[in-house]
Amino acid sequence: MNIDFILPWHQPAWQHLVQRWQKGQLAHALLLSGAAGLGKLHLARNFARWLLCSQNHNPAAVRDDSEPCGRCQGCLLMKAGSHPDFLEVLPETDGKQIPIDSIRDVSSYLSLKSQFAPLQVVVIAPAEAMNKYAANSLLKTLEEPTPGTLLILVTSQLSRLLPTIRSRCQTMEFAPPERSVALRWLAAHLKNIAGVSEADMARLLVLTGDAPLAALEYAQQNALKSYDQLLASLEKLARNQADPVTEAKLWESVGLSESVKWMYLWITAMIRLKSGMGEVDNQSEWREPVLERLAPGLDNRSLFQYLDQLTGSARLVNSQVNIQLTLEDLLINWQKLHRRTIKSD
Ligand SMILES: [Zn+2]
């Protein structure tokens, strides 16, 4: 699927970067920080493509910030994935660490001269995937920047980066776009996927904290189907019409990460419903009838205690934990929570 060269909610950040380049004031290291699914890596890559297009090589001569020409040597090499002045450092697979060797490669790469462009660009994403040895190695590179180099670090977990790394980069914060902007963008990109209603789009955005690219990915994976299945399971368990151990298999098929994340969203939504905040989410009028039916039977104290358990489970997501047991435990406690509340009423 084609994604806009500059995403609508990135316009201010884009302008900022281009102006810095025009004035010769681009920092040697940038840190793009914000929630996952906002397109930060997309921006980093496209800014690299833009800088390496021969049209933009001379900052003082840059007239506009339009897309790279697509025809010059720089553009063709970028398209082929073989531009010698561009290096991208990613984990081998999602969720894996970036090892020290990859960062050593960055320093030796930066010690070479650029070949076509006036600068070398290195993108590291996600930066929090660097293990501590890799991070310490990068620190040395940041402390002694080589002229004519640009490092772009991308992170969705700023707190996991060394403070010393953070302080040596110019940080650019990315916030989710307004719901209306995200909805418009999502609608335009979902028009080829049948059966996604406007209400579904709002749900996708609520689920992803208004991160449009994450919402798009969810839609492509038909995630709302799993979402509805888990929500129905939640209700059956609350009504004692299902067995937590059996139900845990369904949750496991969706995955621990999603299960915990969605459950967290639903529990906080019920707390807000109980606090008399009306609609679960005012901005989109997001409503979940299941939650509206379940919330009155629960008390806030139990819901808050359950949130604590969910927070604990969220920490286990990328560990070696037994997923089935973790989910069984969560569902057994969810069922108990309901029984306890009913008893105390
Ligand atoms: Zn070009």
Mean pLDDT: 91
CATH superfamily of the largest domain: P-loop containing nucleotide triphosphate hydrolases
Provide the gyration radius in Å: 24 Å
CATH topology of the largest domain: Rossmann fold
What ligand molecules are bound, each kind once? Answer: zinc ion
Helix content: 40-55%
Largest sheet: 5 strands, parallel
Quickly count the domains: 2
Shape: elongated
For the largest beta sheet, what order do the strands appear in spatially? 2-3-4-1-5
Instruction: Give the class-level CATH name of the largest domain.
Output: Alpha Beta
Supply the key terms.
2 domains, Rossmann fold, binds zinc ion, five-stranded parallel sheet, Zinc Finger, Delta Prime, domain 3, alpha/beta
What does this structure look like?
The protein has 345 residues and is an alpha/beta fold. The chain has 2 domains: 8-174, Rossmann fold; 222-344, Zinc Finger, Delta Prime, domain 3. Helix content is 52%, strand content 8%. The chain has 15 helices and 5 strands. It has a 5-stranded parallel sheet with strand order 2-3-4-1-5, with helices on both faces. Strand 3, helix 5 (132-143) and strand 4 form a beta-alpha-beta unit. Helix 10 (223-238) packs antiparallel against helix 11 (244-254). The longest helix is centred in the C-terminal third of the chain and has 22 residues, at 323-344. The chain is elongated, with a radius of gyration of 24 Å. The N and C termini lie far apart (53 Å). 34% of the residues are buried. The model has no long low-confidence stretch (mean pLDDT 91). It binds zinc ion (ZN). Residues 53-55, 68-69, 71-72, 74-75 line the site of zinc ion (ZN).
